[in-house]
């Protein structure tokens, strides 16, 4: 019925907080001029809201005309009822909107409380954080003050200790000066006393000079008479004995026979002594050329009893245990170890082996493990010891092989740097002594032997004499490690020289936490061209770096610095090689096999 009363039905405008404004009551039928003037003071939103309730006289006239029409109509009562129902509906809608507005206000209050509570919570958290930071700062200040106090106390103690040391040093110096002064006085007194005694003796000698000369003359005369009588007595006795011997032929025969038996006894004793000495050397001692051996000997047991007991209790181990090398080379060495062990058990003929490659690749170590694995004794000698012996080299080589033939368990004779005396006789300039030593070696190794196994090691095998090559049954090349082998070696020595000592809790040895695996992989790439011995020395340098640090803590940077230094040293060593040595070095660096030291 809005058209009836002259106002328009509009939706109330939105409030400032986003909620609906409650609708106002319908305007009155009269509008005053004061109310129109007050509209000018309203805001734009208020004026827009008031537009819906402005009075329209033309509309009132139309409403009156419509009322008269309705009074004359037979449906006037129904229209009035309908208008009342519409008004009730509108009032109910108004009440619903009012309740909705009130609910919106309550929700806004709740939201405001929630925001206020959140702000308070943030403020409390920030205050707590500030308090924690303040407490931490105060703790740091207190700790710093405590450290400064400790440092001050330490400085005071050091100063007191220094003063005490200076005082003790001064006292010691004064005491030393006093002792020196006393000794000087004693020495002066002794010298004065000795001088007085000498003067007194000289005075007595001068006074008794004639008497002394007479005594000397009488003693000389008596000695001359005694010597002359002794000579006369001896001459008479010898003359009588010679006369009696020459006049009696039985005595002559007896004398000649006694002298002959004496000469025979001396010669026999000399020969027996030499034979006994060689037997004792073969059974009890070891030849002079042998530097190291696992064979039991009485002399070595007396010199090193603990090592001898450990060697006797040592059980045979796997020949390739702890070995890092190329799979093909590992398979070949395992076959050699198995064949050697079975040859020893079946008392067969041993095969001679040549192991060649750059230094530090594990040739000596594998020879020892091969002997231990096979249940044999090993003996290590170097070719460089043969040359300085000169003419005695032949005898020394024969002694070595004679000693090797007396082994009951079988002997693995390892000759390191064998090319030092087994060079080519046709092209190399060698002395007659070296040539004789080479010939003696060839004579003793002409046939395979069930008593000893010959293993030669060399960095330049091309220098061997052809006859030496003819006596070799197996040739194994030990080359520098590849990337995979270097990484395994770096990890092995890092665990051995760094992680294990740190885990055992050794003094001044700690390790910072970092990615050990990544660092080991990085160092393996850096160590290209390095041998196993150089990598093992790198592990020792890590320990030295930790011991040399102020706090005894090994850091990642320290490890990498040591690795870079080792790489630079390796390159410098390679630069020092001569042209021929460079060619030899290139010829033996083509593989990946390697053994750990």
Automatic annotation (TrEMBL):
One of its GO terms (molecular function) is ATP binding. Gene3D superfamilies: P-loop containing nucleotide triphosphate hydrolases. Residues 1-45, 112-140, 155-175 are annotated as: Disordered. Its main location: mitochondrion. InterPro entries: AAA+_ATPase, ATAD3_N, ATPase_AAA_core, P-loop_NTPase. Residues 349-482 form the AAA+ ATPase domain. Residues 29-38, 130-140 have a biased composition (Low complexity). One of its GO terms (biological process) is mitochondrion organization. Keywords: ATP-binding, Coiled coil, Membrane, Mitochondrion, Mitochondrion inner membrane, Mitochondrion nucleoid, Nucleotide-binding. GO terms for cellular component: mitochondrial inner membrane; mitochondrial nucleoid. It is found in: Mitochondrion inner membrane; Mitochondrion matrix, Mitochondrion nucleoid. CDD domains: RecA-like_ATAD3-like. Residues 112-129, 156-175 have a biased composition (Basic and acidic residues). It comes from the Eukaryota. Transmembrane segments: none annotated. Pfam families: AAA, ATAD3_N. This is AAA+ ATPase domain-containing protein. It comes from Anopheles merus (Mosquito).
């Amino acid at each position: 019925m809005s058209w009836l009363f002259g106002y328009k039905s509009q939706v109330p405008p939105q409030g400032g907080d986003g909620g609906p404004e409650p609708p106002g009551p319908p305007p009155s039928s009269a509008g005053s001029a004061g109310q129109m003037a007050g509209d000018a003071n309203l805001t734009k939103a208020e004026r827009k809201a008031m537009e819906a309730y402005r009075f329209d006289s033309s509309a009132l006239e139309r409403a009156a005309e419509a009322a008269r029409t309705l009074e004359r109509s037979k449906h006037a009562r129904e229209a009035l009822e309908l208008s009342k129902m519409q008004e009730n509906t509108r009032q109910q809608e108004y009440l619903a909107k009012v309740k909705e507005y009130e609910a919106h206000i309550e929700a806004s209050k709740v939201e405001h409380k929630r925001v206020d509570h959140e702000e308070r919570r943030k403020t409390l958290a920030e205050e707590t954080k500030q308090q924690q930071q303040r407490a931490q700062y105060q703790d740091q200040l207190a700790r710093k003050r405590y450290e400064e106090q400790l440092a001050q106390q330490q400085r005071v103690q050091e100063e007191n200790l220094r003063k005490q040391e200076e005082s003790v040093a001064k006292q010691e110096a004064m005491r030393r000066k006093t002792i020196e002064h006393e000794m000087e006085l004693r020495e002066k007194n002794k010298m004065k006393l000795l001088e007085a005694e000498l003067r007194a003796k000289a005075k007595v000698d001068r006074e008794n000079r004639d008497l002394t000369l007479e005594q000397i003359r009488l003693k000389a005369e008596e000695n001359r008479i005694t010597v002359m009588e002794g000579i006369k007595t001896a001459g008479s006795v010898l003359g009588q004995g010679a006369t009696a011997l020459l006049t009696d032929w039985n005595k002559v025969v007896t004398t000649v026979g006694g002298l002959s038996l004496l000469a025979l006894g001396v010669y026999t004793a000399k020969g027996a002594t030499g034979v006994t000495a060689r037997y004792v050397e073969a059974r009890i001692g070891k030849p002079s050329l042998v530097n190291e051996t696992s064979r039991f000997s009485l002399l070595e047991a007396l010199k090193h009893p603990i090592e001898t007991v450990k060697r006797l209790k040592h059980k045979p181990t796997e020949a390739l245990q702890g070995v890092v090398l190329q799979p093909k080379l590992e398979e070949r060495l395992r076959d050699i170890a198995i064949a050697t062990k079975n040859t020893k058990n079946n008392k067969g003929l041993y095969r001679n082996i040549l192991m060649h490659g750059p230094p530090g690749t594990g040739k000596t170590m594998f020879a020892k493990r091969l002997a231990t694995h096979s249940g044999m004794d090993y003996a290590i000698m170097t070719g460089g010891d043969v040359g300085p012996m000169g003419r005695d080299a032949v005898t020394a080589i024969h002694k070595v092989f004679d000693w090797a033939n007396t082994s009951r368990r079988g002997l693995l004779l390892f000759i390191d740097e064998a090319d030092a005396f087994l060079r080519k006789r046709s092209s190399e300039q060698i002395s007659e002594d070296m040539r004789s030593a080479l010939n003696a070696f060839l004579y003793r190794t002409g046939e395979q032997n069930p008593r000893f196994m010959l293993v030669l090691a060399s960095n330049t095998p091309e220098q061997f004499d052809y006859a030496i090559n003819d006596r070799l049954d197996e040739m194994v090349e030990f080359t520098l490690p590849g990337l995979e082998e270097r990484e395994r070696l770096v990890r092995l020595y890092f665990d051995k020289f760094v992680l294990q000592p740190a885990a055992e809790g050794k003094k001044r040895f700690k390790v910072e936490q970092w990615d050990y695996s990544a660092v080991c992989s990085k160092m393996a790439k850096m160590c290209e061209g390095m041998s196993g011995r150089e990598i093992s020395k790198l592990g020792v340098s890590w320990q030295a770096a930790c011991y040399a640090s102020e706090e005894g803590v090994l850091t990642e940077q320290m490890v990498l610095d040591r690795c870079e230094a080792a790489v630079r040293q390796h390159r410098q060593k390679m630069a020092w090689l001569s042209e021929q040595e460079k060619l030899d070095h290139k010829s033996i660096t083509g593989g990946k096999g390697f053994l750990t030291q």
